[in-house]
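Archive transcription. Copying these from loose printouts into the bound notebook so they stop getting lost. Printout 1 of 2:
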Amino acid sequence: MKNLLITLIFVAFAGFGLQAQTVKISGEQTRGHGSNAKLSSVAVTINKTMSIDKVEGNCAGFWIQQGSVITHKFYDVTSPIGTTLKAGTYTIYPNIKDKQNSANVTITLK
């Protein structure tokens, strides 16, 4: 009975490891005058290659940075679906639409 209980506990915890990990990265941009636009994004580290599963926001596309290097640029919110990001630390920033003062974007990675 004790061995059965240990086996069931092991199987339960092993099942948690099989669930897909989901990571979200968000960013915002507020329009400024000249070159003083405000960009905001909290850096997120992923430990394995992951794919963009979902994009949400009120932006005209966005860009993804790894450190100070832009790794991806998108001009809409549908074409990024399926794009992969390798392990690393990323930030994301939205493009502001015309006549808009601010924009936000969130991507979901799986």
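Printout 2 of 2:
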Amino acid sequence: MEKKSLVSFCGLYCGACPSYKKGKCPGCAENEKASWCKIRRCCLDKKISSCAQCQEYEQVTECKKFNNFVSRLFALVFRSDRAAGIKMLREEGPEAFVAFMSDKNWVAIKKGSR
């Protein structure tokens, strides 16, 4: 059974992550060791479950915490599109996002797939 709690703050799906599947990570929402993540901290401070609920920016890519050098490099190397994940979460809701990501067994939406 897919769980909405496995949607990361930045639009990834922990349920398909190898570390989560092997029991090495509890998922983004429960990972107390991820204090280094500025996106996680921001969402926790705002009491929102992901960047999809943030009202500060119309487009998530306008946020410097979300759209920084490391995230752009990650997207290039892994051909991932976290902004598409946030867009899907906003437009279709977490249930549809979890079902889609679980069906594909993807951690991140792939560039050009949506």
